[in-house]
């Protein structure tokens, strides 16, 4: 597994790097067979250290976790525990569904736009009828089953995930609802 260990405005020593590689490698290998790479970033906010990690799995799924503590090693340990918990849940779901993805997840390209916040004029009315595009980027949309999309959303700790449904090829969305449940939007079935 390839590691990219960085610090935002803090120095990361060799001892911490070797500790991260051994501990995170052990945690990931325990639950997943073929992880491809991991990105670990350390930062500091006032008195608190923050550790953010992202692990890309060979199946195309991505797991991410974040830990906070007053010491840098404790922040990493908190992050590693959360990562282990996510990977353990993911492995349990794969066993429960009796489905191992043999081929990697396919990704399709899609346009992503950042729109400017709505501006009001002196009368309190919206100044622009059409939103102003601030940035244009390209993003990737994975082709997944609904169950895999929910797992990916939970692994990446995101509030929503746009994906292409592997059954019919249509674009779908899964999202975390305010009541704690997961919502699934499938426009193909809206008739």
UniProtKB/TrEMBL annotation:
It is found in: Cytoplasm. It comes from the Bacteria. Its main location: cytoplasm. Keywords: Cytoplasm, Translation regulation. The keyword Cytoplasm applies. Coiled coil: none annotated. The keyword Cytoplasm applies. Residues 130-183 form the Sigma 54 modulation/S30EA ribosomal protein C-terminal domain. HAMAP family: HPF. Required for dimerization of active 70S ribosomes into 100S ribosomes in stationary phase; 100S ribosomes are translationally inactive and sometimes present during exponential growth. NCBIfam families: yfiA (TIGR00741). Interacts with 100S ribosomes. Belongs to the HPF/YfiA ribosome-associated protein family. Long HPF subfamily. This is Ribosome hibernation promoting factor. The lineage of its organism: Bacteria, Pseudomonadati, Pseudomonadota, Alphaproteobacteria, Rhodobacterales. The gene is raiA.
């Amino acid at each position: 597994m390839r590691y990219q260990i960085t610090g935002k405005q803090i120095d990361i020593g060799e001892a911490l790097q070797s500790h991260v590689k051994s501990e995170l490698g052990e945690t990931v290998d325990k639950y997943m067979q073929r992880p491809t790479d991991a990105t670990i970033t350390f930062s500091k906010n006032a008195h608190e250290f923050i550790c953010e990690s992202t692990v890309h799995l060979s199946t195309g799924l991505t797991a991410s976790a974040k830990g906070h503590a007053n010491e840098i090693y404790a922040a990493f340990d908190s992050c590693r525990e959360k990562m282990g918990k996510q990977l353990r849940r993911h492995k349990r779901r794969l066993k429960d569904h009796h489905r191992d993805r043999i081929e990697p997840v396919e990704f399709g390209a899609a346009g992503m736009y950042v729109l400017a916040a709505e501006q009001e004029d002196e009368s309190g009315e919206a100044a622009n009828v059409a939103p102003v595009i601030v940035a244009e980027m390209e993003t990737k949309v994975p082709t997944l089953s609904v169950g895999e999309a929910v797992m990916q959303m939970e692994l990446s700790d995101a509030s929503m995930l746009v994906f292409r449904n592997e059954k019919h090829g249509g674009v779908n969305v899964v999202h975390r609802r305010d009541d704690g449940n997961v919502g699934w939007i499938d426009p193909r079935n809206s008739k």
